[in-house]
Design goal:
The protein is α+β, with helices and mostly antiparallel strands and 231 residues long. Helices cover 45% and strands 26% of the residues.
Length: 231
């Protein structure tokens, strides 16, 4: 990554953290920006507000999700022009996922259409896709296609296409987001239970696993965040 790109990402990280603090009353302890092609990844640590803590202690996850989604939507709408100024183009879509137990989260901004694909060693990619199939099909529909869209020392993101069951598509069309949220939690929990299998394959310690869903386009992104090898 060249210096100017790194400086741009640091600027965007600072800007985004300030917007979060203004809207939430609290900013993240750390906010790391990573880019690849038409996608911008925002990884945050220690971001739960006191109000959310109370709701979580009372198992009000739906309320937490709805509250955070509403505020994040407002923040992203303010943040998009800054991204456009730095990288050009428009961010057409954004998705987010949160791990409340570890107090971490990820946001993905994306321009479309995109044909970004990461080239990796063929045998390794095949083994990775086979493992995703082995683990994933226990919990959700087998996707029609998988594609690695980012792979670095810090993160691996895999796009899966045509991932929704007919019932899930119907739930989305009818606005039954509570059902989808519950299903998404169960699926991610399944991957977390099998984290050691992916750590053995990557030969890296996995800090977080996220799954961000694009229900409109019937796809998701499985994202592994690795512990940094250096600080």
């Amino acid at each position: 990554m060249n210096k100017s790109t790194q400086e741009n990402l640091l600027y965007l990280s600072s800007t985004f953290s300030k917007l979060l603090k203004r809207r939430f009353g609290k900013g993240p302890e750390t906010c790391t920006m990573m880019s690849k092609g038409n996608r911008l990844y925002i990884y945050m640590r220690n971001f739960i507000t006191p109000a959310e803590e109370v709701l979580l202690e009372n198992n009000q996850l739906i309320l937490v999700h709805n509250f955070r989604s509403a505020v994040i939507n407002a923040v992203i709408n303010e943040f998009k022009p800054e991204v456009s100024k730095v990288f050009g183009g428009e961010s057409d879509h954004f998705f987010h996922d949160w791990n409340y137990d570890s107090n971490t989260g990820i946001i993905l901004l994306e321009n479309v259409p995109s044909n970004d694909e990461v080239k990796m060693e063929e045998d390794f990619e095949k083994t990775l896709f086979n493992l995703i199939d082995f683990v994933g099909t226990r919990y959700h529909k087998r996707p029609v296609g998988l594609k690695v869209v980012k792979f670095t020392q810090n993160i691996c993101a895999i796009e899966a296409r045509e991932v929704l069951l007919q019932l899930e598509s119907l739930a989305y069309e009818q606005g039954n987001l509570d059902l989808l949220l519950h299903q998404a939690r169960e699926i991610k929990s399944g991957y977390l239970k099998n984290k050691s299998l992916f750590e053995d394959l990557f030969n890296r310690v996995i800090e977080d696993i996220f799954i961000v869903w694009d229900y409109e386009k019937n796809r998701n992104y499985l994202i592994f965040v690795f512990y940094k090898e250096y600080q």
